[in-house]
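Thread: Modeling a multi-component assembly for a lab meeting

Hi all, long-time lurker, first post. My supervisor asked me to bring a structural picture of a complex we are working on to next week's group meeting, and I have zero experience with this. I have the sequence lines for every component (566 residues in total). Could someone generate the structure of the whole assembly? Inputs are pasted exactly as I received them:
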Amino acid sequence: MQEALSFQGVSVAYRDELVLERIDARVPVASMCAIVGPNGAGKSTLIKAALGLVPLVAGRVTVLGGTMAQRRAQVGYVPQRESVDWEFPISALEVVLMGSYGRLGLLRRPGRAERVQAMECLEQVGLAALADRQISELSGGQQQRVFLARALMQRAQLYLMDEPFAGIDALTESAIMQVLAALQERGCTIVAVHHDLSTVRERFDQVLLLNKRVVAAGPVATAFTADALQRTYGGRLAMLPEAASDCGSTSAGC
Amino acid sequence: MAELLRLLSLQDSSTRVVMLSTAGLAIAAAMVGSLAMLRRRALVGDAVAHASLPGICVAWFVAGDRSLAVLLLGAFVLGLACMATMALVQRFTKAREDATTAIAISGFFGLGIVLSRMIQNQPGGNRAGLDGFLFGKAASAVTSDAWLVLAVAGMVVAIVLALRKEFGLLCFDRDFAVGIGRPVHRLDGVLLVLVALVTVAGLPSVGVVLVVALLVIPPAAARCWSASLGSMLAVAAAIGAMSAIIGTGLSAVLPPPSGAVGGGWPTGPMIVLTAAVLFVLSLLLAPERGVLITMWRRHRGRAADSPIGSAG
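Re: Modeling a multi-component assembly
Sure thing. I ran the full set together rather than chain by chain. Output:
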């Protein structure tokens, strides 16, 4: 099995409008893949299509050599932070425990073993001290890390993440990068929607440039070219194509 | 006063059963209502309640047997029909959700009033009985009816407790629930059926017009006190039970309004008023975001910030 995730001719529509058209893409096992594209390109929809959150009009998604239904237990998910109500009456630890629900089934509740595991996951993202905090008391970056800890709790092989780096502080950024690197070391695959073009090169080894269709896909070295970016973003990319390839650490303007 | 004591000490066995059943129902409604509120479906109960009036009338016409169980079954069926109608309208038209709900509530209620007027004109059409369903009967219900309500409430509480982890996940993060393969449509369906069950079971004591309050007020009050789903369910249940017991007791004990023909105060409004008082107290006294603690903090903050200003 070479591919962790592959899309074969996947199309998705909202109402009557196609938002993804005949997506063909492959993500190799143990890679870190960025899904990149302008607003409305269908980046989140692609993740949701893989998970079965939105119905496919056409095509097929293969996950770790099987269908999503067969492989759910091996897939972790980090939704966009804004997708939930952070005023919800629940503590950070309880959110992380949700990562164990998949293996617990409908009626069994998490016990002592799961709580120990959940504390370890919070430890990995540097939030063990805040385990009992109500989630509304956490900062945006801490909330993002709680979601990551919940995904760790899922003990998956493939992690699908919707903008894990959106609107976070520097501390959270390095904490998340450490966790992702450790996951990749263990052979896990990470597919993340990513907004910041300037950090694609340093953080990811695979890239999927998307604008309703696949513009380019493959290793960052070959697929993440100025020409492909230009075709993905059209005139909306303010930066010169050459600059995109070596803007490196400066994120301004990207 | 002596009678109030007698009531509250539950010496009278039929009062005991009725109070127990109303309290049990309030507990079930508060727990289901907490989930419905967190799932942003708080008003579904109101639609079900108003659709239950024509349901009761239809059951009255159709069934020869006019026991409470049969009437409530009619209410339950029409309540579900009302929810299904709203779901279909939502799915296949561009009508706004709030408009759909308002139309369903008033439409079904209007139909119910027309049907109940027809029953009133029938031989044997006992209008007082239907009036009881509008505002709740005084605490003199038949013991067997009380047991029925208690059984429904017990079943609802058992289901909520058994599935509370799943309901919590569904309410907090539906997408994640789908991601781990949970049958979210079925869970949503179970939640709606639970809402319909407690609503219909609440009709005899609280009535069509006010029963939604049992689903909404105790959870809203509990929200002020709790930082987890478990504590919210527990506090809502406690507030619901207190409202039911105090409200039922008051309606039985207070001297009837002067010139009243049909007995004393209806229980529904008493229970709802009690719950409303507990809600206001919760808003004022809550430990984290209560009005009083916020005002005190602001006052202290201002005093610390501007010592000169406070001197002037």
